[in-house]
Amino acid sequence: MYRHRILIVDDDKLLQKSLFNILSEKYDATVVGSGEEALQYLARNNTDLVLLDIKLPGMDGVEVLKKIRDQGLEVSVIMMTAFEDVKTVITSMKMGAFDYLVKPLDIEELEVIVEKALENTQLRQEVKELRKQLAEFDLENIIGNSAGMKQALQLADKIARSYDTTALIEGETGTGKEVIAKVIHYRSARSRKPFISINCGAISKDLVESELFGYEKGAFTGSLPQGKKGKCEIADQGTLFLDEISELALSAQVKLLRFLEEREFYPVGATEKKKVDVRIIAATNKPLERCMRDGAFREDLYYRLNVAKIILPPLRERQADIIPFVDFFLGKFNEKFGKNFRGVSPEAERFLLNYRWEGNVREIKNTVERIVLLEEGERIERNHLSFLVPAQAAENAGSDAAPRLTAGGVDLVEINKSLVFKALEMTGGNKAEAAKLLGISRPTLVYRLNKYRSES
Q1: Single pTM value for the model
Q2: Of residues 220 and 10, which shows the higher confidence score?
Q3: How far is 273 from 213, CA to CA, in rounded Å?
């Protein structure tokens, strides 16, 4: 469990010890004896609250508070003074002190004000995080230049305007299904409440029900003695995101269907129902219609989930999004690794646009991270992408070996055709470079390409 960090700044040894003993029972407390030490400590350590004496040797408490605010340190400060110096206290409050205490300190008053200050700190952090999430999932900040992604974002925005419409998101692994789910949540009236995600394919079938609905104390062997809240209850008034819904066991599907219809559930081992207000968003990388035909997914649950469906196209069908994703991840990993990549060479761009990206956005993220980490330069070059094996090249990997001559003979036309297309893939579609690899002229390569394509 997280323990708040409190810095005590006072030169009175006896008071230092007393405050440390009182506060260290509930919090991580640290003591320093001067303003200079306090600023050095705050520069190196995350701190939730400072108890700051006004009268200090050298730099006084008001000056320390000013430097804390000038440096943009987001920490709550409670001023302490040996006498009620109204003018100084007012100055401190105007500079952003949360409250003040008069010495000799009243222990009960100390504990109450410290608790309120920490609640204020937590609330401020929650507001900051919410603003960050709202900005991150603003439609203008989502990469979606392709027609398919624009359509998906427009539909997500419409769903967000409703309060409790259930949504189903379908798309290959790595296409950004959770991003779309968060767009719906953070653009809705539920944005200030929890977004809770559960991966239905990553938990044991025996534990799905307790993960969703929780359990009462002593419900089963190995359960927590105090019981446990399920994800449905934790998400109350917010959004519950069920990823990989196609992997949900049939027995759990029955209970989920009942929950969707009633918004009520029994925790495991309970005799009384609990009612919650939650939006359900489900996602799958398998078409649920096919799962229904195979008997792996209930038809009635499918129709209950399929109120509003969003289909995310794979990245290979969203060419307009590929380079913007590369640029986005370049900025992210430049900052992480201290590099200065600024873009992509024309040859590398052609390769990136023609690559199939079977892993979608997740694969492009990993690709850029590897390049920024391992390579040097100001832009991604074609040779930086040599570790990526185009799908067709992978299928024809055996063609590097000499063709085996059998009694049935070989098809030289097919061999030549395979080599032409492989050379194009290896050079990112650059016909001049491909011709050099094959030892033929560029016009000859173009002629053969046109011939092979007209025959296919």
Answers
A1: 0.64
A2: 10
A3: 10
